[in-house]
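Next comes the chain:
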Amino acid sequence: MPFYVPLGIRGLVLHLGGLTTRRFGALVYWVRTRRRPELAPVLVSRDS
C-alpha cells in the first residue's frame, strides 16, 4: 500500500496498533493527526 511507503516501519506499526485496539488506536491516530497533519491520509484510509 503506497500510503505506508513514506511512513516506513513506524507508520505500519502504528497502523497495526490501531487495527488491534480500535478505541485506543483511534485516540492515538487522532492525537497524531492533530500534531502531524501529514499522517491524516493514513487515518482516512484506515477508517474507509
Notes: The radius of gyration is 10 Å. Helices lie at 8-20, 22-35, 40-47.
